[in-house]
Amino acid sequence: MAGRAQVNGEQIQAGLADVGLREGDVALVHSSLSAFGHVEGGPDTAIDALLATVGTAGTIVVPTFTWGAFHDADQVTLDLANTSVKSEVGIIPETFRLRPEAVRSQHICHSVAAIGPHSDQIMGDGVSSFGEGSTFHQLYELNAWCLLLGATFNSCTELHAVEEYMRVPYRYHRDFEGSTVVLTDGTEIPSRAIEFLRYPDYRNDFGKMREVLEGHGVLHVAEVGEAKVINVRIRDIFDITVSYMRDDIGYLLNSDCRQLLRDEYGV
Q1: Fewer CB within 10 Å, N side or C side of the chain?
Q2: Dmax of the chain from CA atoms?
Q3: What global pTM score does this model have?
Q4: Helix (H, G, I), strand (E, B) or coil at 91
Q5: Which residues contact 163 (CB under 8 A, 6 or more apart)?
Q6: DSSP result, 145-188
Q7: pLDDT per residue over 16-63, tens digit each?
Q8: Other beta carbons within 10 Å of 52
Q9: Which residues contact 247 (CB under 8 A, 6 or more apart)?
Q10: Under 8 Å CB-to-CB from 136, ≥6 apart: which residues?
């Protein structure tokens, strides 16, 4: 595209090395292909760069979320092979999940796809979206990276794990009783998923966490084409954010909603 940066796989790999991604690492990748400019070869170029960087001993994970379509529906069906995620999380995760070696987890709203030797562990139990037993809990245990590949901290869903851990009062649990997961072999099983949903009047502000984490010295940042590539350990995201929320349970809300929380709950 005229006027936009031209980016190739070697440049993406160099950027990944600059932010500390190494062979054998585990990384959850939030991505925006368009943020780079024009990527030669499209999403497969970015995926190949990720897999080459971590090698056969490492594991790449991408969100295959269906939250937008499913979270407020009464009964839904998640077809692991056929439910697309392009409109919700972009072309890189959609392309990634379709690779024959990729496996996809069973959570109705917050499934992920993974390639690599840790994939089975990362799938979690398909119950909680972000709590104990979930993919995000497993990523914490594996000391995985959160890699923002052209994406911003507003995409950093790992912060929901902190909200669930802290049992924030502006969220509530719902289940998906009557919903179905279709496995890749066509077998249908009942969903066991629960979701920790926000009450309608509340809105998150995750963007602020970039400056906070930068202040703690835990971010690794590089530029590739027109995009920022940011890498940070999931443990650092979680542990640092918990420390802020112990003092202010509404810390991850925007300013208006933090005041609403104080008015409603006195916290």
Answers
A1: N
A2: 54
A3: 0.96
A4: helix
A5: 130, 171, 196, 252
A6: EEEEEB--GGG-THHHHHHHHHT-TTEEEEE-TT-EEE-TTS-E
A7: 999 999 999 999 999 999 999 999 999 999 999 999 999 999 999 999
A8: 16
A9: none
A10: 124, 129, 130, 157, 158, 160, 161, 234
Q: What is the DSSP letter of 130?
A: S
Tokens of 248: 């202010």
User: Do the Cβ atoms of 12 and 224 come closer than 8 Å?
Assistant: yes
In the block, tokens 């390639």 appear at: 115
Give the residue among 177, 153, 114 at the shortest CA–CA distance from 241.
Answer: 153
- Could you give the angle at the alpha carbon of 16 between the alpha carbons of 7 and 225, nearest 5°? 25
Amino acid (one-letter) located at 156: C
Q: Report the chain's C-alpha Rg in angstroms.
A: 18
Cα 238 to chain center, whole Å?
13
> Residue 254: how many CB atoms within 10 A of its CB?
16
Residue at token pair 């911003």: 152
Residue labelled with tokens 């000391």: 143
